[in-house]
Design brief:
Belongs to the zinc-containing alcohol dehydrogenase family. There is one protein chain. With about 375 residues, the chain is of the alpha/beta class. The protein folds into 2 domains: about 200 residues, Alpha-Beta Complex (Quinone Oxidoreductase, Chain A, domain 1); about 140 residues, NAD(P)-binding Rossmann-like Domain (Rossmann fold, 3-Layer(aba) Sandwich), CATH 3.40.50.720. Strands 3, 5, 6, 9, 10, 17 and 18 form a 7-stranded mixed sheet that branches. The protein has a 6-stranded parallel sheet with strand order 13-12-11-14-15-16, sandwiched between helices. The structure holds zinc ion (2 copies). One zinc ion binds next to helix 2.
């Protein structure tokens, strides 16, 4: 039996169908089963994947308990949970790490086969611990962080130092870490290299930060919002391009800035805008260019020319920037706790959980990077 077998009734944000406005509801949160933990959320934030799934996605089942970024405290644990206990501060994750499967031991990928990214929005036994008005709620991946309580398998949670800044912990639970990991783990950016980052939201700023840590010397950020220039520079960007200022395609503008005008060594597509995958490809060097696609997709992929790939470039997609949910994210959490990243620069807006509707307006403001949800 779980350490608390009572059903908890609390507030949570529910999306009843794609394209419908979200509502604040009373939800019921069942106790955790044997390998699960129930988490009292302390702080959450908004990632573009949440917005895309609220707008409607064929991948998602509704009704949906929204949110996948956040940090909380373990309220109760199932009887088989060994690695976590009541009162631990945890970041819920959307991939796990068994350290035993073929992928985990390969050292080549973070995509654990035992605890995978799930799109059905259910627990590992294909049921849900969350319900509202008698209806089963689905999660975004394995999480439902815009709720006062949620249940997650203990393998999808990372214990962190309780003194960690809660908003910053929320930022590293998805967006920022995805970018940082893409430069660190997925691209393995080499010292002295050149980098282009398309889109300077939290993911792009994370990619800049990761590229700088790896020793990249020329880091060009591309964003149509001039207010992102200052943010990019704080994280380590050396050059900025606003593609709105020119008739030339962004890839050409990146090339113009590069040594010998032959492009960059690495590019990171952080926007999810389909045609920018091709721009990211074209911006890199023939023969050696490496492109990492990490933006949450907004539309079907557009075809790109054979030539871009045949000319020796490598195109790679990544979930969570190639970060292992335990061994790598714990290193980032440690750096976050020691305030090695200027994550306060991401914190531009906040709302109370009950005022979640205001958050969608705040996201449209040009100076908005992250909206924190106080729970
Ligand atoms: Zn594994
Ligand atoms: Zn996310």
């Amino acid at each position: 039996m779980a350490s608390n077998s009572q059903v908890i009734t609390c507030k949570g944000v529910v999306c009843w169908g794609g394209g419908e406005p979200v509502t604040i509801e009373e939800i019921q949160v069942d106790p955790p089963k044997a390998t699960e933990i129930r988490v009292r959320m302390l702080c959450s934030s908004i990632c573009h994947t949440d917005i895309k799934r609220i707008r409607g996605s064929p991948l998602v089942k509704y009704p949906l308990a929204v949110g996948h970024e956040g940090v909380g405290v373990v309220e109760s644990v199932g009887e088989e949970v060994k690695n976590l206990k009541e009162g631990d501060t945890v970041i819920p994750t959307f991939i796990g790490e068994c350290k035993q499967c073929e992928n985990c031991i390969s050292g080549k990928t973070n995509l654990c086969l035992t605890y995978p990214l799930t799109n059905n929005g259910l627990m590992r036994d294909n049921t849900s611990r969350l319900s509202c008005k008698g209806k089963k709620l689905h999660h975004i991946f394995s999480c439902a962080t815009w709720s006062e309580y949620m249940v997650v398998d203990a393998n999808y949670a990372l214990k962190v130092d309780p003194s960690i800044d809660l908003a910053h912990a929320s930022f590293i639970s998805c967006g920022f870490s995805t970018g940082y990991g893409a430069a660190w783990k997925e691209a393995k950016v080499e010292s002295g290299s050149s980098v282009a980052v398309f889109g300077l939201g939290a993911v792009g700023l994370g990619a800049i930060s990761g590229a700088k840590m790896m020793g990249a010397t020329k880091i060009t950020g591309i964003d149509k919002n001039d207010m992102k220039r200052e943010k990019g520079e704080i994280f380590g960007m050396t050059h900025f391009i606003n593609p709105g200022d020119s008739d030339m395609p962004p890839s050409k503008l990146v090339k113009e800035l590069s040594d010998g005008k032959i492009g960059v060594d690495y590019s990171f597509e952080c926007t999810g805008i389909s045609h920018l995958i091709n721009e990211s490809l074209q911006a890199t060097k023939v023969g050696t260019g490496k492109i990492i696609v990490i933006g949450a997709p907004t539309e079907p992929i557009e075809p790109f020319g054979f030539g871009s790939i045949l000319q020796g470039r490598t195109l790679k997609g990544s979930v969570f920037g190639g970060l292992k949910a335990n061994s790598d994210l714990s290193i980032i959490a440690d750096k976050c706790q020691k305030r090695e990243f200027p994550l306060e620069e991401l914190y531009t807006h906040e709302v109370q959980l009950a005022d979640i509707h205001q958050a969608f307006e705040l996201l449209k403001q040009p100076n908005c990077v992250k909206v924190v949800i106080k729970i």
